[in-house]
Amino acid sequence: DAGITQSPRHKVTETGTPVTLRCHQTENHRYMYWYRQDPGHGLRLIHYSYGVKDTDKGEVSDGYSVSRSKTEDFLLTLESATSSQTSVYFCAISEAQANYGYTFGSGTRLTVV
Amino acid sequence: AQSVSQHNHHVILSEAASLELGCNYSYGGTVNLFWYVQYPGQHLQLLLKYFSGDPLVKGIKGFEAEFIKSKFSFNLRKPSVQWSDTAEYFCAVNNNNDMRFGAGTRLTVKP
């Protein structure tokens, strides 16, 4: 498998607290993505990055921000966690644009109580 | 915005049965099509992909999919399923770096 790791794997946090999830890749791929997976919705794009400091919003970006200061790291921050953000979060990478498909990380299960 | 529909929410089959999972999309332009599989507790893995050429695409583990442009469909098939195929299957459609996923189909294969 491609070198992509997510941390933490599991997290429980309280409503209103900020939370940061990390995605780290060793493949030097240009494109990185954050998705959330919820039953009945499949995967929905939160934010993506097409290079260092170059990011854009996806279809469910409200309440989330991202940063990419290095090629290998893509951080997702929940500015003030809410119960509706309880989900499984997946990071994905691709060498070129999405045309060639993604490689996914193992996911972070986040519970907001 | 384009959308992806997977017709079956949960499919239950016995081992050796044939499988077909439906996938339809709404976008009419040039698309790239994918099927991903997610085994219990794991991340998504690419099963197969279509870009152009032969509309019948063969992937890993004996899976194949057929792109029918006139029907906006990309159905996944396997002639004989195994217990180890128990997983969730996601269809995805990409147009101009806008990748959309279906809601997924859970496949349970009974031994």
Could you characterize what this model shows?
The complex is a heterodimer of chains A (113) and B (111). Chain A contains no helices and eleven strands. In chain A, the strands form two sheets. In chain A, strands 2, 4, 5, 6, 9, 10 and 11 form a seven-stranded mixed beta sheet that branches. A four-stranded antiparallel beta sheet of chain A has the order 1-3-8-7, with no helix packed on it. Chain A is mostly beta strands. In chain A, a hairpin with a 2-residue loop joins strand 7 and strand 8. Chain A is globular. In chain B, 40% of the residues are buried. With 111 residues, chain B is mainly beta. In chain B, the strands form three sheets. In chain B, strands 2, 5, 6, 10, 11 and 12 form a six-stranded mixed beta sheet that branches. Chain B has strands at residues 4-5, 10-14, 19-21, 24-25, 32-38, 44-50, 56-58, 64-68, 73-78, 87-95, 98-101, 105-110. The A-B interface holds A 33, 35, 40-45, 59, 90, 97-107 and B 1, 4, 6, 32, 34, 36, 42-46, 49, 51, 90, 92, 94, 97-99, 101-104.
Short key terms for the protein model shown above:
heterodimer; A: 113 residues; mainly beta; seven-stranded mixed sheet; four-stranded antiparallel sheet; 58% strand; B: 111 residues; six-stranded mixed sheet
Short synopsis of the structure:
The complex is a heterodimer of chains A (113) and B (111). Chain A is mostly beta strands and 113 residues long. In chain A, 0% of the residues lie in helices and 58% in strands.
Major sheet of chain A: 7 strands, mixed
Tell me which protein chains meet in the greatest interface and how many residues each side has: A-B, 21 and 23 residues
How would you describe the shape of chain B?
Answer: globular
Give the overall pLDDT of chain B as a whole number. Answer: 93
Structural class of chain A: mainly beta
Oligomer: heterodimer
Order of helical and strand elements of chain A: EEEEEEEEEEE
Strand content of chain A: over 45%
* Strand proportion of chain B: over 45%
Distance between the termini of chain B: 41 Å
